[in-house]
Amino acid sequence: MKVYIISLSAGVLVGVIYSLLHVRSPAPPLVALVGLAGILIGEQVIPIGKQVLAGASISSAWKQGMATQHIFGMLPGHHSAQPKIAAAKVVEKQP
Asked: What is the pTM of this model?
């Protein structure tokens, strides 16, 4: 959740700077978001396509490539699919 707050804060800061400089954002917000979504999806086409050509089903290739995690990131309230590595305890030797 912290990442989303930081991202939103950075966006608001840029918006304030644009306003102070009397500049409009370079793209309408919806067009910009659709373009970003296209970039994220496009990054997955080649890896998933290679797996499909190798004989995997699309859903299997999608899961193996972890495409959902790449496109949507870590959504709030969900835990990572990878197990967390426990921190090793350091034991001091006493003389």
From this structure: 0.48
